[in-house]
Write a sequence for this structure.
């Protein structure tokens, strides 16, 4: 009877651990979805921004093409490639910074209502991306702690739970403030 009770407690404990791992994995997936939505919003806004800037800064074609190229590269990455997406989005953020710095050289563009609205929307989205990234990284941390901690690591190993990558910038140059020279 005591042996049966011990086995029952161990099985119930394993079920509780498994459910906790599933919950942590789902939180990580939901958090990644939040990042993906914000990145999609930003990607959808970029063509409108490029068209607005084109009319004022036609000879800045290289900067405009770079933003479009980086946007397309980020969009082409598979949804689950967190590290690749983080790197591509970091480069895109830097290119967008250069694009907005161009506005300083074009007073008519800077005064354009459509450009100002697009810039404000993009700034809002960038803030949302930051919040989503923090939420995702917290969910990834919680999952990683469960996957690596004893005794949940035993259950995680049996059911093939793996650590989640963080959404972070690997390249220190991507963290730098973009420099724009005229």
């Amino acid at each position: 009877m005591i042996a049966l009770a011990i086995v029952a407690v161990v099985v119930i404990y394993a079920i509780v651990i498994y459910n906790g791992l599933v919950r942590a994995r789902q939180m990580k997936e939901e958090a990644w979805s939040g990042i993906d939505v914000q990145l999609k919003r930003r990607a959808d806004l970029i063509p409108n921004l490029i068209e607005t800037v084109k009319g004022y800064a036609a000879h800045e074609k290289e900067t405009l093409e770079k933003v479009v190229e980086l946007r397309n590269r980020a969009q082409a990455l598979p949804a689950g490639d967190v590290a690749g997406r983080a790197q591509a989005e970091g480069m895109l953020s830097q290119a967008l910074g250069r694009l907005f710095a161009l506005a300083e050289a074009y007073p008519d563009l800077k005064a354009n209502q459509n450009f100002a609205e697009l810039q404000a929307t993009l700034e809002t989205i960038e803030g949302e991306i930051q919040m989503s990234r923090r939420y995702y990284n917290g969910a990834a941390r919680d999952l990683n702690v469960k996957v690596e901690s004893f005794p949940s690591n035993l259950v995680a190993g049996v059911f093939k739970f793996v650590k989640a990558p963080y959404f972070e910038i690997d390249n220190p140059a991507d963290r730098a403030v973009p420099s724009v020279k005229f």
